[in-house]
Specification:
binds succinic acid; seven-stranded mixed beta sheet; Double-stranded beta-helix
Amino acid sequence: MSVTLRKLSHALGAEVVGTDLSQPLGNAAFAAIHDAFLSHGGVLLFRNQQALTREGHIAFSRRFGELDRHDNLPRDRHPEYPELLMVTNAPKPDGKPGDGKYTGQLWHSDLSFTLVPAMASVLRAIAVPPVGGDTMFANMTLAYEQLSDGMKRIVAGLDGIHTGTRKIVDLSADRAEESRRLNPPIAQPVVRVHPETGRKALYIGEKVKCFAGMTEAESQPIIDFLCRHCFRPQFCYRHAWQPGDVLMWDNRSTCHVALGDYEDGFARHLERTTIMGTPSGYVLN
Ligand code: SIN
């Protein structure tokens, strides 16, 4: 069985047209979606999924693998559905103020700061601003393949130190302490081999502060070069959300950033499942 696909950009992404995720999905249709996911750079979009419930969102995601319960991000998980992470500018479930528009505003791959980084994420848009609030995705396989052989040799030996904290927005002292306690720095190889496609991809982002065994001053020029290289527009797809969109991405071969490009006062509420990947990395002592 095939599904109808429409390419979203040259670098990555496809829309799966006409598939209603609230209806039962047979094995053949699921296999076609899984193939499309791997062969279109790891970004798939399903529009007009207003009928999809939270249970349906979780059930669809589970077809791809075991779901994370977001123990690393307890403030953001749904109080009744731990498999759902609330990506929202609304106040937190515990009544604490929301994160405003700043969540995810650094290029990253989900849960790279844990020992079981995410395989994929499935984000469902419930409320979005009338203009903006976009998310950009970069194809990290393409970015790796377009490095020179010399740079490929350099990055092959590097492990990046990933943290869960942000640089743009200063966390309050108690948030910073909680983040450090829950998420100590984790070293991840800068080049990872995709377990399903066998292709190499860069595993780097703006939350990487330095490389294992190197100082920040030594690391920063290489990190800056890699980020400039990977996040060039020609490697990217920019998604303008509509309510009812379900968009999934492969965290092993893409990076993404929430642009925060919208006016204050508009609700932006999305919910995410996170499909667990294979163990990777080590705790830095
Ligand atoms: C995320 O980083 O998982 C969310 C992206 C977004 O808010 O657009």
